[in-house]
Design brief:
By secondary structure, the chain is mostly helical. The chain has a domain of 201 residues. The protein has 15 helices and no strands.
């Protein structure tokens, strides 16, 4: 029986590669393979574009201004995340469900209902940011980022609605448009924003003015991308003329429940990504924020690129039992190999990597990069395990332990930063790096334990 399972898997893999070679994307499998290809290409474009953008900005701004930029942007995204509440996944889920039943009227009803909620939440996040911007800049951080935070209100609106319409395309099972949007956005961001920064540096002596123009120019990039998607959506989706159906109380309740569950995971994920820079921003000078952000951005761009084999995992997710477990094992084994190789390269050649990519002004990032390189061993595998638990219908496990790991991350960051600050500001930045690594490893560890428990439980059920 085991040989039969292996033969079936080999047959399915051959079928996938046949589809890719022949470019025959008919049927559900063909559609899945095509969408995975677009998804992977989109992720690749985003991460590669972000990496080059970060390198250009880091070199133009130098450590101090780059640190202030990272702090301002991290703060803006954190505040916006409080009001996100999982609207994006809800659009994908409920609109696609209605479209699957060929009910465009209901699909429009779901989208309009969620769009109204999104607009209200974006309004709340903008008001909140404008209300506390002065306190954060001059009291909590004591750094010149007030005008940048004000520009962040425009940034929140542009990125918020852009994400909403990107989700709409995914709900329509169109993954090509988001890819085209990312190619468009990354291209103009790499050209337009650096030109604005160069102009600002040459014409303004105030750090606040430079940062304001930087965040504002980024917002314009996302506004242009939003208009790009809107034009595509008008051409592709004929929802404007479609009549809306009134949603039942039961349907609204179902949406709200889903949004609430997903929001816990989304909010914790954002905290995971930005809490270190938020806490560090209160205690250290801006240049040390720049050193930390440079190292973390490099790891954050490299880690998702390792997990290229995960594009096959949605195919495995359609399998059950042993075939699913075998798919998970094969995916993780391949990723572990690439993770170890990249980890060793980063550890050994960190000085050369930093000097070539960021320049000699960022030599203090070398130690931070070596500490954070430990994430290369765990982040890609964690992403696979997240997909695994979602594929078996266990999102509560992810939400529960992500929240616990986030709380641990906050506590460790505060403790290590304040303790190591007694020795030096670079040590404090190293404390933030250690706290981030420990909390990420904790999260992966509990996912691994939970996976073994589920496997043991399923074996016991079969035995009984």
């Amino acid at each position: 029986m085991k040989k039969n399972l292996i033969k079936r898997e080999e047959k399915e893999l051959k079928n996938i590669f046949h589809i890719l070679v022949k470019r025959d994307f008919k049927g559900y499998t063909g559609m899945a393979v095509k969408n995975m290809g677009y998804q992977f290409s989109t992720t690749f474009v985003v991460k590669l574009g972000s990496l080059f953008f970060t390198i250009i900005l880091a070199r133009l701004l130098m450590p101090e201004l780059f640190g202030l930029y990272s702090l301002a942007l991290g703060t803006i995204i954190m505040i916006a995340s409080f009001f996100e509440l999982g609207i994006g996944p809800a659009i994908i889920k409920f609109v696609s469900q209605a479209l699957g039943k060929k009910d465009k009227s209901k699909a429009k009803s779901y989208f309009v209902y969620l769009l109204k909620i999104k607009a209200f939440l974006l309004f709340l996040s903008v008001i909140t940011l404008l209300a506390i911007a002065k306190f954060l800049a001059y009291n909590y951080y004591n750094k010149p980022i007030f005008l940048a935070l004000l520009a962040g209100a425009f940034y929140i609106l542009c990125t918020g609605f852009l994400g909403t319409f990107s989700n709409l395309f995914q709900a329509f099972n169109d993954f090509k448009a988001p890819l085209l949007k990312e190619i468009f956005a990354q291209s103009i961001r790499l050209i337009f924003v650096p030109l604005v920064v160069l102009y600002a540096i040459n014409n303004f002596s105030s750090q606040e003015n430079i940062l304001f123009l930087l965040i504002f120019s980024l917002s314009l990039v996302y506004l242009a991308s939003l208009l790009f998607l809107l034009i595509l959506s008008i051409k592709k989706f004929n929802l404007v003329k479609e009549k809306r159906k009134s949603l039942l109380k039961k349907e609204k309740k179902e949406i709200n429940k889903f949004v609430f569950i997903v929001s816990a995971t989304a909010l914790s994920g954002i905290f995971f990504g930005y809490i270190d820079i938020i806490i560090l921003g209160r205690f250290v000078l801006a240049e040390f924020l720049g050193f930390y952000s440079a190292a973390f951005s490099l790891i954050g761009s490299l880690a998702p690129l390792i997990a290229f084999s995960s594009v096959l995992f949605p195919i495995f997710s359609r399998l059950k039992g042993k075939r699913l477990e075998r798919g998970l094992t094969r995916s993780t084994n391949l990723i572990i190999l690439f993770s170890i190789i990249l980890f060793i390269i980063t550890i050994l050649f960190a000085p050369i990597i930093i000097k070539i990519i960021y320049g000699s002004n960022y030599v203090s990032s070398i130690l931070l990069l070596r500490i954070l390189s430990l994430l290369l061993l765990v982040l890609p595998i964690t992403a696979i395990y997240d997909s695994y638990f979602l594929s078996i219908g266990k999102p509560a496990i992810i939400a529960k332990f992500l929240i616990i790991a986030t709380v641990l991350n906050i506590v460790l960051n505060y403790f290590l930063i304040t303790w190591l600050l007694n020795y030096s500001q670079l040590y404090a930045a190293m404390g933030a790096a250690v706290a981030t690594v420990l909390s990420r490893y904790f999260y992966f560890g509990v996912l691994l334990i939970q996976k073994k428990k589920l496997l043991r439980k399923s074996k016991n059920i079969k035995t009984n």
